[in-house]
Specification:
This is Membrane-bound lytic murein transglycosylase B. Keywords: Signal. GO terms for molecular function: peptidoglycan lytic transglycosylase activity. The protein is of the alpha+beta class and 384 residues long. It has two domains: 307 residues, Helicase, Ruva Protein, domain 3; 60 residues, no CATH class. It is built from 14 helices and seven strands. The strands form two sheets. It has a five-stranded antiparallel β-sheet with strand order 4-6-7-3-5. A hairpin with a 2-residue loop joins strand 6 and strand 7. The longest helix is centred in the middle third of the chain and has 25 residues. 48% of the residues are buried. The N terminus is likely disordered.
Length: 384
């Protein structure tokens, strides 16, 4: 599920985390789990990979709302075979929300170093909460781990970071969030951001259309769903497109319920890890996630622009990096640099590290999820 620099949703169409709770009361749509310590803040999009910009649209002239809305109804009805009258009736219940516009248009916070970022997500309460959650759902998590090859503690860590183990899945109506951002995405007035802001509005408008398709497929009352201010839902904070593409029926009851059915939630997160990644691929069962490394004296620091593990150990050795723990000789990795409390930390990030970044493309988010999973599993983790 996510944003401070680019609002927890830079990986278009994937997942987006819930906004921080204002109280510790669980969302009424969350699965019935004991409340845990609320999320201190959403997973910040700090140190994101460089994603090539989409081609700038030929015409950025704003389309009047009435025309854009009518086009949306017509196109969504044709695309998904949905009665346009039903679409109109649902949109009539949607509300433009100024608070959602404000949340999406907040100025970016300074990029926090790892030493400040990690303590927000790896705490004694979150580790203990994760262990208790894993113990309660041990049988279901073990089934999913056997089927998909994604460790139970990784699935639990995702839920812990995204929604505090279901304690807070978001308070905004999804229909309002996507309607607001799909038709009134905030504009900065900066010409250099105009194409980006146009694409973002189109992205959210497409997610709104996919919400209608999802509602029909899963027999959901889409006017009653709640989630993050960006429209992400459930314990794993899936956007509608990700829900449709990656959610699975984990218990064979004929439904894919990411709000209350833990079997479906666990299997869907694991399926996402296995299948999201394009040609590069997703999670590799049994594969390593990261390994500590050091930079030899006399070499300049290397900062890759993406998290794809494209570099052989020989490539990295030529750049001055040497692993500090055993690594398969044929491994490929990316190089992850973090500002730790005692100085720079260097890590080799393998294919499974890349798989975590497909959930949220921040290098620090991926490392936080990995280290939280290790702590939940009872393994020692290094200091921040």
């Amino acid at each position: 599920m996510i944003r401070r620099a680019l609002v927890c949703l830079l990986t278009f169409g994937l997942v987006a985390c819930a906004t921080p709770p204002q109280s510790s009361s669980p969302s009424p749509q969350a699965a019935s789990e004991p409340a845990t310590t609320p999320v201190a803040e959403t997973p910040a999009e700090t140190s994101v990979e460089a994603i090539p910009a989409a081609p700038e649209p030929v015409d950025l002239t704003p389309v009047p709302f009435e025309i854009a809305r009518a086009d949306f109804v017509r196109d969504t009805a044709a695309r998904y075979g949905i009665d346009p009258g039903y679409i109109e009736s649902v949109l009539a219940q949607a509300q433009f929300r100024d608070d959602i516009v404000s949340l999406m248009s907040r100025p970016a916070e300074r990029v926090k170093p790892w030493s400040e970022y990690r303590p927000n997500f790896i705490t004694a309460a979150r580790i203990d909460g994760g262990r208790a959650f894993m113990a309660r759902h041990q049988a279901a998590l073990q089934r999913v781990e056997r089927q998909y090859g994604v460790p139970a503690e990784v699935i639990v860590a995702i839920i812990g970071v995204e929604t505090s183990y279901g304690g807070f899945t978001g308070k905004h109506r999804v229909i309002d969030a996507l309607y607001t951002l799909g038709f009134r995405y905030p504009r900065s007035g900066n010409p250099e951001r105009a194409a980006y802001e146009h694409r973002r509005e189109r992205f959210f408008r497409d997610e709104l259309a996919q919400l209608f398709a999802l509602g029909r497929e899963e027999n959901l009352d889409i006017t009653a769903l709640t989630g993050s201010y960006a429209g992400a839902m459930g314990l794993g904070q899936f956007m509608p497109s990700s829900y449709r593409e990656f959610a699975v029926d984990g218990d064979g009851d004929g439904r894919r319920d990411l709000f209350k059915n833990f079997d479906d939630v666990f299997a869907s997160i694991a399926n996402y890890f296995r299948k999201k990644g394009g040609e590069r691929g997703g999670w590799v069962p049994g594969g390593a996630v990261v390994a500590r490394a050091e930079l030899q004296p006399g070499f300049d620091e290397f900062n890759p622009q993406t998290w794809t593990p494209d570099y052989t150990l020989a490539d990295l050795a030529q750049r001055g990096y040497r692993p500090l723990e055993p690594v398969a000789p044929d491994a490929t990795a990316t190089l992850v640099s973090l500002e730790g409390s005692t100085g720079k930390q260097y890590w080799l990030g393998f294919q499974n590290y890349y798989a975590i970044t497909r959930y949220n493309n921040s290098k620090m988010y991926a490392m936080a999820v990995h280290q939280l999973s290790q702590a939940i599993a009872g393994k020692e983790i290094p200091p921040a």
